């Protein structure tokens, strides 16, 4: 009986080693495939970087212009809010400076 259990244990250990080896080989192939895909993506990103470098100056100028537009639109928004509040006061409606409810 002990010989049988020893043989079963050895067979189990061999099967376990084979299964682990196969699993590690499959994982290694998957990682290799992933590595080649990531390398291809990195190469593509380098090409995109090289092709878009001439746009840098234009993007900076566009960004500066949009910052000016943003400041102007913020000023317009403030004026429109003030005009809206004045119209609301004239019509007796709540304004952004007054609470909506008059309940004390």
Short description:
The chain has 104 residues and is an all-alpha fold. The protein has one domain.
What does this molecule look like?
The protein has 104 residues and is mostly helical. The protein has one domain. It has 2 helices and no strands. It is elongated, with a radius of gyration of 36 Å.
Write the layout of secondary structure elements.
Blueprint: H1 2-52, H2 56-91
Main pleated sheet: none
Low-pLDDT runs of 5+ residues are: none
Count of helical stretches: 2
Q: How many structural domains does the protein architecture include? A: 1
Secondary-structure element string: HH
Output the radius of gyration. Answer: 36 Å
What is the number of strand segments? 0
Average per-residue pLDDT, rounded, comes to 89
Through-space gap between termini: 92 Å
Net shape: elongated
Report the β-strand fraction as a percent range.
under 5%
Helix content: over 70%
Would you tell me the structural class of the helices and strands? Answer: mainly alpha
List keywords for this structure.
elongated; 0% strand; 2 helices; single chain; 104 residues; mainly alpha; 84% helix
């Amino acid at each position: 009986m002990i010989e049988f259990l020893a043989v079963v244990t050895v067979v189990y250990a061999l099967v376990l080693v084979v299964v682990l080896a196969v699993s590690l080989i499959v994982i290694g192939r998957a990682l290799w495939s992933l590595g080649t895909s990531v390398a291809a993506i990195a190469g593509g990103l380098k090409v995109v970087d090289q092709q878009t470098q001439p746009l840098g100056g234009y993007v900076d100028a566009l960004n500066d212009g949009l910052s000016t537009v943003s400041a102007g639109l913020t000023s317009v928004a403030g004026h429109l809010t003030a005009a809206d509040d004045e119209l609301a006061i004239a019509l007796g409606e709540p304004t952004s400076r007054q609470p909506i409810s008059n309940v004390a």
